[in-house]
Design brief:
This protein is 37% helix and 11% strand. With 437 residues, the chain is of the alpha/beta class. The structure holds iron/sulfur cluster. Iron/sulfur cluster (SF4) is lined by residues 65, 67, 69, 72, 74-75, 113, 115, 146, 382-384.
């Protein structure tokens, strides 16, 4: 298939495809799907080997948000019966983080609901980071606190935060359909503030909100241009009690095509399967590992994931390896750029000052040569990951307007609330129950 040969060649060189090529990936048929996965998988192995980076979410403050992001279970007016609590104390957050790290997570994502942090909130996060790093100086920390004001990114950097997550979520053209209390430009501004302060930028998207293929391609190219070091790909978790509870627009095949497109556009960037992995990829999750090099371990912000041990077993069974603390996430050339910018998730030297999360040691470039190894925040209902907009047109693949059989089945399921697939988180941070990691 000429398209896949072209995309593979470009990806192996670290080049970005054209918009038309990215759209064509989304328009491939089910008959072509394994060829698409194999082609994007070669690009993934070129830059990341068979490594899988594990990330662990700690929801520092859950629910009660004044913003109206329609995909989010923590939004203003949400009737989702999620856990609601205010800021965890530093010791509580450190205890939660410990569970994820002991389960194999390399990065801990500290997420708080809300429009953005106050300066007092930055103090709280500073104390929390100190508590986590006191227990384990090597752990990477990503903060996800909403829109940043001037100088807050610098304060987080000084506190030892390595990365900042703030997802663009969808295209600029449709952003107003999913949120009215802030703008796409506000989100871009915060990603740029984080980057400017030397934090590694983590910014991704949510698929399944009724967006078009063009919208998906727009946001993925925008993320590439923003220089995001990691791109979380969320699949909408339609939470009962949110405006998007009945938006079931995704099939496992569609999710794989989206991940492949994101990989081709971001060949040398960390691509993370974020919220909605279990809900939408289901038994196809292992194929997703051939495209993404990063996942969350255990539960999400407000919804349950599969058991942490099941994640680890899946990685091993599929022939992948959990990325270790001493290994770089990003390939050498990307890690060098991040380091030059003042840190960022590219250096990987455990606990090193100004280091971040992705040193070049052990990068996929080397690993692949010897055929070796290999949003909250974006997930399950936080600052970035889980909803869809109620007024958009149904998703449809370009060139495949009829839809595949699986997509037709998915459409049949639309307009239903699926409590069998979406389970509210009751474990871990903010509860008396043990975390799922
Ligand atoms: S995504 Fe973040 S800002 Fe938007 S409603 Fe949810 S918690 Fe609030």
């Amino acid at each position: 298939m000429d398209l896949l040969d072209t995309l593979t060649a470009k990806g192996l060189r670290g080049e970005t495809p054209t918009r038309e090529e990215a759209l064509a990936v989304l328009a491939t048929t089910d008959d072509e799907l394994l060829d698409v996965v194999a082609a994007a998988g070669r690009v993934r192995r070129r830059w990341f080997g068979r490594r899988v980076k594990l990330n662990y979410l700690v929801n520092l403050k859950s629910g009660l948000c004044p913003e109206d992001c329609s995909y989010c279970s923590q939004r203003l007016g949400s009737k989702a019966e999620i856990l609601k609590y205010t800021w965890l104390k530093p010791g509580q957050a450190a205890e939660a983080a410990k569970a994820g790290v002991s389960g194999g997570a390399k990065r801990v994502c500290l997420v708080a609901s809300g429009r953005g942090p106050t300066d007092r909130d930055i103090d709280r996060v500073t104390d929390t980071v100190a508590a986590i790093k006191e227990a384990d100086p090597a752990v990477e920390i990503c903060a996800c606190l909403g829109l940043l004001s001037d100088n807050q990114a610098e304060r987080l950097k000084a506190a030892g935060v390595d990365a900042y997550n703030h997802n663009l979520n969808t295209s600029e053209g449709t952003y107003g359909d999913i949120t009215t209390t802030h703008t796409y430009a506000d989100r871009v501004d915060t990603v740029q503030k984080a980057h400017g302060a030397g934090l590694s930028a983590c910014s991704g998207l949510i698929a399944g909100m009724g967006e078009s293929d063009e919208d998906l391609v727009d946001v993925v190219f925008a993320l590439r241009e923003l220089g995001s070091d990691s791109v979380p790909v969320n699949f909408l978790i339609p939470f009962e009690g949110t405006p998007l509870a009945k938006e079931w627009n995704l099939s496992p095949q569609r999710c794989l095509r989206i991940l492949a497109m994101v990989r081709f556009v971001n060949p040398d960037t960390e691509v993370r399967i974020a919220g909605g992995r279990e809900v939408h990829l289901r038994s196809m999750q292992p194929l997703g590992l051939h495209l993404a090099n990063s996942i969350f371990l255990g539960d999400y912000l407000t919804s349950e994931g599969q058991a942490g041990q099941t994640d680890l077993d899946m990685i091993a069974d599929a022939g992948f390896e959990v990325e270790g603390v001493g290994e770089s996430t990003l390939p050498r050339h990307r890690a060098d750029i991040a380091a030059a910018a003042g840190g960022g998730c590219g250096t990987g030297t455990a606990g090193g000052a100004g280091g971040g999360c992705g040193s070049a040691a052990g990068s996929g470039e080397d690993a692949d040569a010897d055929a070796a190894v290999g949003g909250g925040c974006g997930t399950g209902g936080g600052c970035g990951p889980c909803g869809g907009h109620a007024h958009a047109a149904p998703a449809a693949s370009v060139g495949a307007a009829e839809g595949t059989d699986a997509e037709k089945d998915t459409e049949k399921a639309a307009d239903e609330v699926r409590t069998d697939l979406v389970r509210v988180r009751r474990r871990g941070a903010g509860t008396e129950l043990a975390p799922n990691a």
